[in-house]
Backbone:
């Protein structure tokens, strides 16, 4: 029987996924929970604002493990979480997504004979150059209970040898948060600041090493986007990882507007009213799919193929030359309409808590 769970969050997308789970646990009141923030993201816009926006309690502890290399951060989280778990034993830890915190805390828990549940288990890009893919593979090799977003993820786990009785297709928990907050989205100041008009601007996000770590490649991507958006404003909430290199490049265009990272409610307001989103994020492709907004993903693979097969997303690759063709399709009015994948209905967290109650 599970009487107490420890919820792990550390990076921006984690809070979006943890929020509905907290709300479902609070409503059911059959399982007590403790929220651990690893501190992986420590910029206010990248974590603290979510506590306000998403109406979730501040963490019981912040392990303060921000910064450092992948290896340093993994080690710091493991050391800090081991100490915390010894002081606060639990029946189960729940990890979400595929960030460093997800993998690090799963390793610690299993070494301390504590069960692990993985929300968003089984998704795969099959690209081992992505740190997130390593995190997914390691986490799923240790997980006891697998909560999946699609039947594609189920199939990935079954091929890996996971017992089907441990796999629970519950839908996409991040969409719970999106649907619950549709009426609460906040117009960010950039809308008035840059006189943005409905469906007459582009939202851009970039943070993956394959796109932002090589200066010439990043410059080529930005140049092609600027050149092919028919002079529409481009709003670029810049990731701290990208900002350092971008500043050195000296890129400038009249329609390119660099802004600070936005809070959840403001960012999704911007996305909802955009003509298109250009991104290398996985989570954003899910949100654009549900909101029916065209999305171009600057990656050669995706762990969320349903956003392409069913949704509004197109994988256009990392070659800057592909951008012109995609933009021509967009501006010709021929972009696919898309649909919403199965069980992306806003009730995923409820299904998870029902299952935890029965374990």
Residues:
């Amino acid at each position: 029987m599970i009487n107490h769970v420890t919820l792990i969050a550390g990076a921006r997308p984690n809070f979006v996924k943890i929020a509905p789970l907290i709300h479902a646990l609070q409503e059911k009141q059959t399982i007590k929970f403790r929220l651990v923030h690893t501190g992986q993201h420590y910029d206010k816009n990248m974590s603290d604002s979510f506590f306000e926006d998403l109406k979730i309690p501040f963490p019981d502890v912040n392990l303060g493990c921000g910064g450092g290399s992948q290896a340093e951060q993994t080690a710091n989280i493991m050391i800090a979480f081991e100490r915390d778990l010894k002081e606060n034993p639990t029946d189960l830890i729940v990890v979400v997504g595929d960030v460093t915190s997800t993998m690090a805390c799963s390793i610690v828990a299993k070494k301390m004979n504590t069960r692990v549940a993985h929300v968003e288990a089984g998704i795969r890009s099959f690209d081992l150059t992505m740190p997130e893919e390593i995190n997914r593979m390691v986490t799923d090799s240790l997980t006891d209970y697998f909560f999946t977003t699609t039947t594609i993820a189920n199939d990935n786990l079954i091929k890996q040898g996971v017992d089907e009785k441990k796999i629970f297709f519950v839908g996409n928990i991040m969409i719970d948060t999106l649907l619950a907050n549709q009426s609460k989205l906040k117009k960010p100041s950039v809308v008035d600041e840059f006189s943005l008009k409905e469906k007459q601007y582009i939202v851009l996000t970039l943070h993956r090493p394959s796109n932002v770590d090589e200066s010439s490649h990043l410059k080529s991507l930005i140049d092609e986007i600027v050149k092919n958006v028919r002079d529409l404003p481009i709003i670029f909430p810049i990731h701290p990882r990208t900002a350092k290199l971008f500043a050195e490049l000296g890129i400038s265009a009249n329609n390119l507007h660099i802004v600070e990272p936005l809070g959840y409610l403001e960012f999704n307001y911007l996305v909802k009213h955009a003509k298109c989103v250009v991104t290398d994020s996985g989570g954003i492709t899910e949100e654009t799919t549900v909101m029916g907004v065209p999305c171009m993903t600057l990656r050669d693979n995706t762990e969320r193929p349903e956003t392409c097969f069913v949704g509004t997303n197109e994988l256009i690759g990392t070659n800057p030359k592909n951008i012109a063709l995609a933009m021509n399709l967009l501006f010709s009015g021929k972009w696919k309409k898309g649909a919403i994948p199965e069980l992306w209905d806003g009730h995923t967290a409820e299904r998870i808590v029902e299952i935890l109650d029965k374990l």
About this structure: Residues 4-171+344-358 form a domain with the Rossmann fold fold (CATH 3.40.50.2000). The chain has two domains: 4-171+344-358, 184-331. The first helix runs from residue 12 to 28.
